[in-house]
Amino acid sequence: MTADPTRNLVELRDLKVAFDGVQVLHGIDLDVRRGEAIGLVGESGCGKSVTWLAALGLLPGKASITGSVRVDGDELLGAPRPVLERVRGKRIAMIFQDPSSSLNPVLRIGRQITEALAIHRGLAGDAAKAEALRLMDMVGIPDARRRFDLYSHEFSGGQCQRLMIAMALAGQPDLLVADEPTTALDATIQAQILDLLIELRAETGMATIFISHDLGAVSQVCERACVMYAGRIVEQGKIDALFDNPRHPYTRGLFDALPRLDGPRTRLVPIAGTVPNPRHLPEGCAFAPRCAHTGPDCLSERPQLRFNGVLGSLACHHPVGAAPVAAQPVLEPA
Amino acid sequence: MLRFFLIRILRALVTILAVLTFAFVVLRMSGDPAQVMLGPDVPQESVDAFRHAWGLDQPLWIQYISYLKAIFTGDFGVSMRDKASALQLVIDRIPATLELTIPALLLKLVIGIPAGVYAALHRQSAVDRGVILAAIFGFTIPSFVMGLLLVLIFSIILGLLPSGGQDTWQHAILPILTMSIGGIGILARFSRSAMIEVMGQPYIRTASAKGMNWADVVWRHALPNAAVPIVTIVGFMVGSLIAGAVVVESIFSWPGIGRLLVVSVSNRDLAVVQCILLVIAAAMVVSNLIVDLMYGWLDPRLRSHSAH
Fold first, then answer.
1. Do the chains contact at B207 and A58, CB–CB below 8 Å?
2. How far is B6 from chain A (nearest CA, A)?
3. Domains of chain B by start residue, with CATH
4. pLDDT for B52-65, tens place per residue?
5. Contact flag B206-A167 (C-beta cutoff 8 Å)
6. Residues sharing a CB contact under 8 Å with residue B239, sequence separation 6 or more, in sequence order
7. What is the ipTM of this complex?
């Protein structure tokens, strides 16, 4: 089946997830075009990972999922298991936060990669091994031939993530969902993995969803980003627009909380308060209790995500202005 | 690997020696065989003669040393009661015990593990709840109660099966059932929790995320990981193949090692009791050794750890 190149690769519509009756995802709408790289940004527990685990049917059975997930127009939600299994790894591959524990400890690495090749490309025996070695080589595992029969504990964390990526590439997916792929790695390895993701996307043309709380990493990998808060997308836009002119006070807060490498040493400005408990979300805007711009309407009425033309989308009654810095940070006493 | 193996064997020998020493001392401290064997109304000269004949008039440590010496030359002593070789008495009883414990072990494995795995994969379902309930029922009821319960139902009320003896294969059914029910429960519980633990691991999510069908995820990715804790429990069960039937053999008058042990203890038949304990300890130690080797085979992380 040749897909219509103008059509969105993946369309999420009003995707909602609840665990034991507690709503954690409140209706996500997201289009992923072929080949594009989108960042999903937000604090732990805001629903970044849940969105994609839900889309692929990888959440535990107690999760109740509603809405729509379409891949090239085919609905995934409620689809029978074989349909999901054909999408997983083949259309949409996923890599995870902790690479060392994401690889099976009792199976040889080579076998774990050839398994994926057997499932999606029908390769077996020497052909599968040759292709697996090529993939290992491609993701930068030195001496792949010798290490083909090793186990995951014989690789470093960064190499495990490379192996995960090799496994993800095995199905030649249209979309790679990278769920905090560098969080568990140290800084130099992080940079290498990011470079690898950028490089592979350029080579293969696959779309990338990059889930991270690291704004810097997102800006390196992605063209646009969605900022999520308490199970909703609160702001979405092109990376440049978002970085130069964040409109949502939460997005603004995320940038203010970043340490700066240039300029004087200043105290980081944290976002006051904590993420609300999903059981007791505020009635209006979920961010209102932590927001410096809260008005009475924020407490009573939840702002809708509105498309804003070139600026992207925004869900805020009182967006912060174009002014570069709202409040000058206080100098840290010596 | 060789070093690992030698250390294990050395440790096994120390364990066996500790068991022997313990049995030797406790048996001699807790009662006088002469009194038991000869009865209460025997003249003192006969008691003294008996004690002298069996070397019981020697100081304890001399008895102990000559006992160890004999053991190392393969002499496990003579039964005070039958005047026969203690080792031969024990060996003669082993087949009868294995007739019960091996089928019981097989039942535990083929019912307990699949039930636990199935329950884990269908968590919170009616089957899962049923398995948990049955498992708790199985391993909380002591075997002497379970044995009597089964006798009541199948022998007395239904009249289907004999309640004791070793004449036909029907005689083995109730003792085997009694012995296996608790173990089935334990294995079901253990397999269930091991499997639940494994199914929650990130690598299982990875396997699903790469499009593997569910049966392969369970068979190829989950079960090999769940096998490690299950093997531990099975190892214990294998180790107690010889020792595990004391109560059940007594209830069902089954002439195995367990019955011999009970009779020999009450008779203070020192050599026989010591020999049984030695055999039991050796079986335990050997099965532990096998379990350790299995760990290395099942889990490559342990393999490279023990090699270093």
1. no
2. 26
3. 14-72 (no CATH), 90-307 (1.10.3720.10)
4. 888 888 888 888 99
5. yes
6. B283, B284, B285, B286, B287, B288
7. 0.87
